[in-house]
Design goal:
Blueprint: H1 9-24, E1 63-69, E2 82-91, E3 97-106, E4 117-121, H2 133-136, H3 145-153, E5 157-161, H4 177-193, E6 204-210, H5 212-227, E7 232-239, H6 245-252, H7 258-271, H8 283-292, H9 302-307, H10 324-332, E8 344-349, H11 357-369, E9 374-379, H12 384-403, H13 424-443, E10 454-456, E11 459-462, H14 471-474, H15 476-479, H16 489-496, E12 501-502, E13 505-506, E14 518-522, E15 530-535
Parallel strand pairs: 4-5, 4-6, 6-7, 7-8, 8-9
Antiparallel strand pairs: 1-2, 2-3, 3-5, 10-11, 12-13, 14-15
């Protein structure tokens, strides 16, 4: 069966549901001993991804080689887009010429005018070559395949980089912003120069990414003027952004995602040889690192699982983060030092348990203070993985507008910033149209039940029997709204906006005026219907 790309919202909702199941499958990891067996091994070699030595002459973005492949948004389900795996020239964080692999995808449907290219920057996939999106997109196992398919549905070409060392020989430079930005920008150049893709050499460009990809997208926005000034980048959408590297490292240590801290340690050590990670590792640390460098996030490998709830000190003889060389490189790869000169949309899950919301808001404030055109969107109710899924439709609506040349209204005029709906009424209407069915599919997971029928406004738009919701959301009514703990969802419904409901349905256009505390929240039924700005009691 082939899925035609235009006009298949139910298909995308199904893809989002499967993505949600995959992304939440690793939660609840139990603590394991730090010396748990680490048995991961390198992926089988594919000569396509091995670059010639020496590298051929050429400019960043030049295609070394390419081959046609099939894009599968789901296993055994091909799409109607043309796709090519590519190996292209790029630049490392320290300015050396390198090769990077990736995938270029082009819809079959004609496009009126120059076809835009969207560089889709992937989130955390892992460290092993088998984790690279150029592998997973061809067999339907990449968890961000639904987002790529959604972009193709809009008629855009999509360039998906594997980043440095993910797919190609050597370790992946995980979370090294300069390396990632170069790979993202050069993937657009590669798409423009890939002859069989027949894409315009100077058409409009958008950049989208979440989590690791959000940082990569933001870094591309910051470095674009110096590194790729010829690209007509109309807008950058960066979600779940890990902006402050030192803060992220400190927050991850000892938590469920210590494995990501180990991955980042390997990534920085790979990018900057003077850091010399190995001299800080004890025997357990060397075993963990030697396994985690070959592992994927989904399904998580043995070292990633074993590292959960352990501290970095259990794997080291001295903390490398106390070394001035390490601190300097972390600072160098923390966002905010340069103001982007293209419109930027920052999104973040209100209950993000992986990437702290506060440091992303600090990036927003920094960009605004520097005069950048920035919009902000808090995704509620959502933790990190759900933020990826429910953010795709409104983010791509925003990208569609800027790619068409329509202005992007900045939120920086608002002192609150994070309380504003970017793009005004048009953004809300677009979100109402696209977000709800995808969010329903994504959140139909384990624990709790919703009433029959999901509503947006006065009528039911997604008839549904009894579906389930995540444990995180099930605790909302008792403990307060995720990200807004002082607000009780039930009190919003019964006390604050009694005139704004009909047959038990919250209407999205209602406003309350009984307090001065204004928060932009997403209120479902009970927890999925996007709402306008509400004033809530404290």
């Amino acid at each position: 069966m082939s899925i035609p790309l235009p006009g298949r919202p139910r298909c995308l909702a199904a893809l989002a549901l499967i993505t949600g199941l995959l992304l939440t499958a690793h939660t609840g990891t139990a603590r394991a001993e730090p010396d748990a067996p680490a048995t991961s091994a390198p992926a089988p070699a594919d000569s396509f991804f091995t670059p010639p030595s020496p590298l051929p002459a050429g400019k960043p973005g030049d295609v070394i080689r390419s081959r046609p492949v099939a894009f599968h948004p789901l296993p055994l389900v091909p799409s109607s887009a043309k796709a090519w795996q590519v190996l292209y020239l790029s630049t490392s964080a320290t300015g050396e010429r390198i090769s990077v692999s990736g995938t270029i995808l082009v819809p079959l449907a004609r496009y009126a005018g120059p076809r835009p290219i969207v560089a889709y920057a992937i989130g955390t996939h892992g460290m092993g070559d088998q984790c690279a999106p150029s592998r997973g997109l061809t067999i339907g196992t990449d968890y961000e395949g639904f987002a790529v398919a959604a972009a193709l549905q809009r008629g855009w070409a999509v360039a998906v980089t594997d980043y440095e060392g993910l797919g190609t020989p050597g370790d992946h430079t995980y979370l090294v912003g300069h390396s990632a930005a170069h790979a993202v920008l050069d993937s657009v150049r590669a798409a423009q120069r890939l002859a069989p893709a027949k894409l315009p050499a100077a058409g409009p460009v958008g950049i989208q990414g979440y989590s690791q990809g959000g940082a990569s997208a933001a870094w591309a926005a910051q470095l674009k003027d110096d590194y790729a000034p010829e690209l007509d980048v109309r807008g950058v959408a960066a979600g779940g952004v890990p902006a402050d590297m030192a803060g992220i490292a400190a927050g991850a240590d000892g938590g469920p995602f210590t494995g990501m801290l180990l991955m980042a340690s390997v990534g920085f050590d790979t990018a900057y040889s003077e850091l010399d990670l190995n001299r800080y590792l004890n025997a357990q640390g060397r075993a963990m690192v030697n396994s985690i460098r070959y592992e994927c996030l989904l399904p998580p490998g043995p070292a990633f699982l074993a590292a959960a709830f352990h501290r970095l000190s259990e794997y080291t003889t001295a903390n490398p983060l106390n070394n001035p060389l390490w601190r300097a490189r972390l600072m160098e790869n923390s966002l905010g030092g340069t103001s982007p000169d293209v419109p930027v949309l920052l999104t973040h899950a209100g209950a993000d348990e992986v990437v702290p919301l506060g440091q992303a808001k600090a990036l927003y404030d920094t960009y605004c203070a520097a005069g950048a055109n920035v919009s902000w969107r808090t995704l509620n109710p959502a933790e990190h993985a759900i933020g990826l899924i429910i953010g795709v439709p409104p983010v791509q609506d925003w990208l569609e507008r800027v790619l068409e040349g329509r202005p992007a209204a900045s939120d920086c005029r608002s002192a609150a910033g994070a309380g504003e709906q970017p793009g005004g009424d048009e953004f809300v209407r677009a979100e109402m149209e696209h977000r709800v069915p995808v969010a329903v599919a994504a959140l139909a997971l384990a624990g709790g039940t919703y009433p029959a029928g999901l509503h947006s406004g006065p009528s039911t738009i997604w008839p549904l029997p009894s579906v389930t919701r995540t444990t995180l959301l099930a605790t909302g009514a008792a403990s307060g709204w995720p990200g807004l703990p002082h607000i009780s969802p039930r009190s919003i419904f019964t006390a604050n906006v009694p005139s704004c409901s009909r047959a038990g349905v919250m209407l999205p256009s209602c406003h309350t005026t009984d307090t001065a505390t204004t928060s932009s929240v997403v209120i479902p039924n009970w927890m999925l219907v996007p709402s306008r700005k509400f004033q809530a009691s404290t």
